[in-house]
């Protein structure tokens, strides 16, 4: 691999991928594309950028991420997460590039009681999930030998809005914080996922679906208590509530735990436990408050 193109490079995950590549002395040349350079809403422009730049590997971190807005603007969300990704896959097929595409746990309905395997049947329960599933199918259909779908969930990191940053802010402004305790998933640090994406980009791994989430599982409430503990605050200030306490237009999966068996075929271990990652990420998240 000589040239890597990262879409969504100004976002939380895209920025982490670019930063990880810049720190890696063995990384290839990097083209960091924000929406001003490559906008998935404009398929012709997407393919034109790929023909001009001719990367060996594309890591697609771009996408429509406003989950609730997708319920009332599903056509717009699908234009980005479905049709735009199809154009990206078509462009990669034209130039012979591999594509690593970021997807989501929302392609599942969240009714399982055991971790979802990579080949588990998909059944999105909301508009965001339907659009992301359309993008997955485009990648796998158009790039059967060069398409990689990496599903992630509960993502957090520096430089973006996320649950960890929200809890850090609320700890300093409220006596108590109510957090849902009936949704279960895997908090995943962008630093860990970025490193894994770069390894996958360099590896001779089989194409297909991989699950890029941390090991272990927890609830939002339990995660908030861990954050308060790291802040030196009393975790008893976090109060558990049900999802009904926060009405949403989006049906969110109650169970977003993903299995990681397929990393073995790529010769890589699964991503480490979420708590270990959070502790290592903490200096970059807390801004000196810890």
Automatic annotation (TrEMBL):
<protein>
    <recommendedName>
        <fullName>dTDP-4-dehydrorhamnose reductase</fullName>
        <ecNumber>1.1.1.133</ecNumber>
    </recommendedName>
</protein>
<comment type="function">
    <text>Catalyzes the reduction of dTDP-6-deoxy-L-lyxo-4-hexulose to yield dTDP-L-rhamnose.</text>
</comment>
<dbReference type="Pfam" id="PF04321">
    <property type="entry name" value="RmlD_sub_bind"/>
</dbReference>
<comment type="similarity">
    <text>Belongs to the dTDP-4-dehydrorhamnose reductase family.</text>
</comment>
<dbReference type="InterPro" id="IPR029903">
    <property type="entry name" value="RmlD-like-bd"/>
</dbReference>
<dbReference type="GO" id="GO:0008831">
    <property type="term" value="F:dTDP-4-dehydrorhamnose reductase activity"/>
</dbReference>
<dbReference type="InterPro" id="IPR036291">
    <property type="entry name" value="NAD(P)-bd_dom_sf"/>
</dbReference>
<keyword id="KW-0521">NADP</keyword>
<keyword id="KW-0560">Oxidoreductase</keyword>
<feature type="domain" description="RmlD-like substrate binding">
    <location>
        <begin position="3"/>
        <end position="281"/>
    </location>
</feature>
<dbReference type="InterPro" id="IPR005913">
    <property type="entry name" value="dTDP_dehydrorham_reduct"/>
</dbReference>
<comment type="pathway">
    <text>Carbohydrate biosynthesis; dTDP-L-rhamnose biosynthesis.</text>
</comment>
């Amino acid at each position: 691999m000589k040239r890597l193109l990262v879409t969504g490079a100004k976002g939380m995950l895209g920025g982490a991928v670019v930063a990880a590549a810049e720190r890696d002395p063995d990384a290839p040349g990097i083209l960091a594309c924000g929406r001003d350079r490559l906008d998935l809403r404009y398929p012709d422009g997407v393919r034109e950028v790929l023909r001009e730049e001719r990367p060996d590997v594309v890591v697609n971190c771009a996408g429509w991420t406003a989950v609730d807005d997708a319920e009332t603007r599903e056509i717009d969300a699908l234009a980005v997460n479905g049709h735009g990704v199809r154009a990206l896959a078509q462009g990669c097929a034209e130039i012979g590039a591999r594509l690593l595409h970021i997807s989501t746990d929302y392609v599942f309905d969240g009714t399982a009681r055991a971790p979802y395997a990579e080949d588990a049947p998909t059944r999105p329960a909301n508009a965001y999930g339907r659009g992301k599933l359309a993008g997955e199918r485009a990648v796998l259909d158009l790039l059967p030998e060069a398409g990689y779908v990496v599903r992630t969930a509960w993502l957090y990191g520096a430089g973006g809005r996320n649950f960890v940053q929200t809890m850090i802010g609320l700890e300093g402004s409220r006596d108590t914080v109510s957090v849902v305790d009936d949704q279960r998933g895997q908090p995943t640090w962008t630093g860990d996922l970025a490193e894994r994406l770069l390894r996958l980009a360099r590896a001779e791994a089989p194409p297909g679906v991989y699950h890029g989430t941390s090991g272990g599982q927890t609830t939002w409430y339990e995660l908030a208590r861990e954050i308060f503990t790291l802040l030196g605050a009393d975790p008893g200030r976090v109060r558990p509530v049900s999802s009904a306490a926060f009405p949403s237009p989006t049906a969110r999966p109650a169970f977003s735990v993903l299995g990681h068996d397929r990393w073995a075929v790529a010769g890589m271990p699964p991503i480490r436990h979420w708590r270990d990652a959070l502790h290592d990420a903490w200096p970059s998240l807390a801004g000196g408050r810890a």
